[in-house]
Design brief:
With about 90 residues, the protein is mainly alpha-helical. It has one domain: ACP-like (Non-ribosomal Peptide Synthetase Peptidyl Carrier Protein, Chain A), CATH 1.10.1200.10. Helix 1 packs across helix 2 and helix 1 crosses helix 3.
Protein backbone atom coordinates (compact mmCIF):
# COMPACT_ATOMS: atom_id res chain seq x y z
CA UNK A 1 0.00 0.00 0.00
CA UNK A 2 1.36 3.35 -1.00
CA UNK A 3 0.29 6.96 -0.74
CA UNK A 4 -0.30 9.43 2.06
CA UNK A 5 -2.24 6.90 4.14
CA UNK A 6 0.26 4.03 3.70
CA UNK A 7 1.34 4.00 7.35
CA UNK A 8 -2.27 4.14 8.55
CA UNK A 9 -3.22 1.36 6.10
CA UNK A 10 -0.38 -0.84 7.31
CA UNK A 11 -1.38 -0.38 10.94
CA UNK A 12 -5.08 -0.98 10.20
CA UNK A 13 -4.18 -4.22 8.39
CA UNK A 14 -2.06 -5.28 11.37
CA UNK A 15 -5.03 -4.73 13.69
CA UNK A 16 -7.33 -6.70 11.38
CA UNK A 17 -4.90 -9.61 11.26
CA UNK A 18 -4.59 -9.58 15.04
CA UNK A 19 -8.39 -9.61 15.59
CA UNK A 20 -9.13 -12.28 12.98
CA UNK A 21 -9.16 -15.88 14.11
CA UNK A 22 -8.23 -16.97 10.59
CA UNK A 23 -5.15 -16.13 8.52
CA UNK A 24 -6.16 -13.20 6.31
CA UNK A 25 -4.43 -10.93 3.80
CA UNK A 26 -6.58 -7.77 3.83
CA UNK A 27 -6.59 -5.50 0.80
CA UNK A 28 -8.17 -2.05 0.67
CA UNK A 29 -11.11 -3.27 -1.40
CA UNK A 30 -11.96 -6.18 0.93
CA UNK A 31 -15.30 -6.02 2.76
CA UNK A 32 -14.79 -6.49 6.48
CA UNK A 33 -17.84 -8.72 6.85
CA UNK A 34 -18.15 -10.47 3.49
CA UNK A 35 -14.55 -10.95 2.41
CA UNK A 36 -12.68 -11.11 5.71
CA UNK A 37 -15.30 -12.99 7.71
CA UNK A 38 -15.78 -10.49 10.55
CA UNK A 39 -19.16 -10.41 12.29
CA UNK A 40 -20.71 -7.44 14.12
CA UNK A 41 -19.11 -8.36 17.45
CA UNK A 42 -15.69 -8.72 15.84
CA UNK A 43 -16.18 -5.31 14.17
CA UNK A 44 -16.66 -3.76 17.60
CA UNK A 45 -13.39 -5.40 18.64
CA UNK A 46 -11.73 -3.90 15.55
CA UNK A 47 -13.07 -0.44 16.43
CA UNK A 48 -11.78 -0.74 20.01
CA UNK A 49 -8.36 -1.89 18.79
CA UNK A 50 -8.16 0.91 16.21
CA UNK A 51 -9.03 3.44 18.90
CA UNK A 52 -6.24 2.09 21.10
CA UNK A 53 -3.75 1.80 18.23
CA UNK A 54 -4.26 5.37 17.01
CA UNK A 55 -5.43 7.18 20.16
CA UNK A 56 -8.70 8.23 18.52
CA UNK A 57 -12.43 7.87 19.17
CA UNK A 58 -14.56 6.30 16.42
CA UNK A 59 -18.24 7.18 16.93
CA UNK A 60 -20.55 4.18 16.62
CA UNK A 61 -22.66 6.07 14.07
CA UNK A 62 -19.59 5.95 11.76
CA UNK A 63 -19.72 2.14 11.58
CA UNK A 64 -22.23 1.86 8.70
CA UNK A 65 -19.82 3.87 6.53
CA UNK A 66 -16.88 1.57 7.33
CA UNK A 67 -17.62 -1.52 5.26
CA UNK A 68 -14.23 -2.07 3.61
CA UNK A 69 -10.61 -1.97 4.70
CA UNK A 70 -10.12 1.14 2.56
CA UNK A 71 -13.04 2.89 4.23
CA UNK A 72 -11.57 2.04 7.65
CA UNK A 73 -8.22 3.51 6.58
CA UNK A 74 -9.92 6.65 5.23
CA UNK A 75 -11.97 7.16 8.41
CA UNK A 76 -9.00 6.63 10.72
CA UNK A 77 -6.93 9.04 8.58
CA UNK A 78 -9.70 11.66 8.73
CA UNK A 79 -10.00 11.31 12.51
CA UNK A 80 -6.23 11.68 12.89
CA UNK A 81 -6.28 14.86 10.76
CA UNK A 82 -9.14 16.26 12.89
CA UNK A 83 -7.22 15.41 16.05
CA UNK A 84 -4.12 17.27 14.81
CA UNK A 85 -6.20 20.39 14.08
CA UNK A 86 -7.79 20.45 17.55
Amino acid sequence: MTGPNADVAERVVTVLKRISHEPIAPRLENALIGDLGFDSLRLLEVVAELEDEFGIFIPLNDLPAIATVGQAVDRVSALLREQRRA
